[in-house]
Amino acid sequence: VEGSREAIARYYRQLCNHPYFDGVRVDVGERSVLGVRKNTYAIRTFATSDGRDSLASTRLSTAQMNCVALSIYLALAGVLSHRLGFVMLDDPSQSLDAEHKAALVSVLRAMLPTTQLVVATQDAELKALLRTALTDDGCRAYDLAWTKASVGVTATA
Question: Is 22 exposed, middle or buried (0-12, 13-18, 19+ CB in 10 A)?
């Protein structure tokens, strides 16, 4: 988490665009559970204008908390030692409005070509935004159809 603070904050600004709480940070602590030291995490949002802060879960909407989660996930994907070169997202647009979906697509586009993206979604609006923004970069989009009668998957590009 320490090595990803700046990236978390940058992604949060790009994705959330909260009118007052324009910053986010993850405070890391420790606690002892049955003699075992464990990390604890408090996600705090703050206003750069006056320094006021609060636990993110008490001030942000579900959509904004989803933006926080995406910010942390995408930032950690860039600093973890595995460096696999891909990011997988399953239904990342939960609770997001059109503006936040567009911001997410913009962030994902900026990750190309150094990161392979796999995005699973049933959100038609997000799918259309992804197809428009990413198909000119050699990306491929597939629609997977599942039926009770089929054993396999029917994929169309």
Answer: middle
Contact 141, 157 (CB under 8 A): yes
Alpha helices in the chain (DSSP H): 5-15, 56-59, 62-79, 98-111, 124-134
What's this model's pTM, rounded to 2 decimal places? 0.83
State the average pLDDT for the chain: 88
- Classified as helix, coil or strand, 40 is strand
Q: Give the CB-side neighbour count of residue 59, counting CA atoms within 13 A.
A: 19
Using one digit for the tens of pLDDT, what is the confidence trace for 49-61? 999 999 999 999 9
By C-alpha distance, which of 18, 15, 10, 70 is closest to 45? 18
**Dihedral (Cα; 71, 130, 90, 21), 10-degree rounding:** 30
Alpha-carbon gap, residue 154 to 157, rounded angstroms: 10
d(CA 21, CA 44): 10
Q: Would you put residue 71 in left (φ > 0), alpha (ψ -120 to 50) or beta?
A: alpha
What are the tokens at 153? 């998957």
